[in-house]
Design goal:
With 405 residues, the protein is mainly alpha-helical. The protein has 16 helices and no strands.
Length: 405
């Protein structure tokens, strides 16, 4: 009888990659939750701040594109081992400078390397999932959510005790950088090839056709438009539209993060039992329902119920989109993941300004219906999450489940 359990090497690779996802979730939360403190430290005006914030995802997209070419010459695990400490040190630099140009340099380095980090982490995750032969991607993104909760909680402690940013960041970076470096010793590169030597090497696989990848790119953008709406507008919406207290207005994002973690903790089991297509459709419906509840909520508690549904629905979309890209291009999954990752930042760039512009010109209740409609469009593209047809990825056959019309 053949032992179908993953090898010890694969289990170690899975645990070490989860640690890296956790570290990145914490680092990113420590940056975005302390933006007001960064603005005060450097005396940045409200008019200039959006330029700094927009530069990070733009440069991250550049870093993701560069990683597609970089991994043709070096393994994704090596890229991740190099860039993760740099991302952490860039956070510390951003919080320790004294002039605006120092902040600009730190955020530029952060943006470029975080794009490479996101791409290489998900490349390794896709490869490990294929080697395991079952869904594990949601678990990695669940570790990211857990790191985000930890980072946001530590940022709250820093704000509550009025800690200077260097005092907050330095000890945390001193812990997280060694943790990431130690975990990096057990990364497993191209795990699918190690599990099955018949798998084609990444460098020898077919090119990535953007027409086949486009539905997944759209889903990725829609998911991050929804996510950025919650992260940027939930507090303002509860306080200004639903007339909550200032303290209560801070709760929806935390609730959203917790339900995101819960959904990702159990999402892999749902994929294994019901399939990725069903899980993605259910997630899109839940997220759409969450936006509908938020848009029509009569009060703050109903609004928080809507944000809870949003967390449970949106949490499955991004991990499954990366996994689907790996299935569509089994011989070129690294390139597919790097290109798909760009639309993470596209959605982030579009989401917040879109809702803000619509809310200012119209009203914020109606503005919430736009990300709702975009997230529900995911249902149309859910067929792209099914297993690729036989022969696809070897350059001979196009997928019949893709509809980009």
């Amino acid at each position: 009888m053949t032992d179908s359990r993953p090898s010890r090497r694969l289990r170690q690779g899975r645990a070490s990659l989860a640690i890296s996802f956790f570290v990145q979730g914490a680092i990113f939360a420590l940056l975005v939750t302390r933006i007001p403190a960064l603005q005060d430290r450097y005396g940045i005006s409200d008019g200039l701040l959006p330029l700094f914030l927009a530069a990070v995802p733009i440069l991250a997209g550049v870093g993701s594109v560069g990683t597609e070419h970089l991994v043709k010459r070096m393994l994704p695990g090596l890229v991740l081992r190099v860039v993760q400490p740099i991302v952490s040190l860039a956070l510390l630099s951003a919080g320790s400078g004294t002039t605006v140009w120092q902040l600009a340099v730190a955020l530029a380095v952060f943006g470029l390397t975080v794009g490479a980090l996101d791409a290489s982490m998900n490349m390794l995750g896709v490869s490990l999932q294929r080697a395991y032969g079952r869904s594990i991607m949601l678990g990695f993104h669940g570790a990211y959510s857990l790191g985000g909760i930890a980072g946001a909680s530590l940022a709250w402690v820093g704000a509550h005790w009025d800690l200077p940013l260097p005092t907050l960041y330095a000890p945390l970076v001193a812990i997280l950088v060694p943790a990431a470096l130690i975990a990096g010793r057990w990364y497993v590169d191209h795990a699918a090839q190690q599990a099955d030597p018949a798998e084609p090497a990444q460098g020898d696989g077919p090119s990535v056709g953007m027409r086949a990848l486009l539905p997944l790119c759209l889903v990725m953008a829609f998911a991050y438009i929804g996510d950025s709406t919650v992260s940027n507008w939930s507090a303002k919406y509860l306080e200004d539209v639903l007339h909550s207290s200032e303290q209560l207005a801070t709760v929806p994002y935390n609730v959203y993060m917790v339900t995101t973690l819960l959904g990702r903790s159990f999402g892999d089991l749902g994929v294994r039992r019901f399939g990725a297509v069903t899980v993605v459709r259910a997630g899109a419906l839940l997220a759409g329902g969450g936006f509908a509840v938020v848009a029509t909520a009569p009060g703050a508690w109903a609004g928080m119920a809507g944000f809870t549904l949003l967390g449970l629905g949106l949490c499955v979309l991004v991990p499954q989109t990366f996994a689907a890209a790996g299935r569509l291009f089994p011989g070129a999954s690294d390139a597919a993941v790097a290109r798909l990752n760009i639309f993470n930042y596209v959605g982030f760039l579009i989401g917040s300004p879109l809702v803000g512009a619509l809310g200012g010109a119209w009203n914020y209740r109606a503005a919430m219906l736009v990300p709702m409609a975009l997230v529900l469009m995911t249902i149309r593209y859910a067929r792209s999450f099914s297993p690729a047809p036989a022969g696809y990825g070897d350059g001979h056959e196009r997928p019949r489940t893709v509809d980009v019309g």
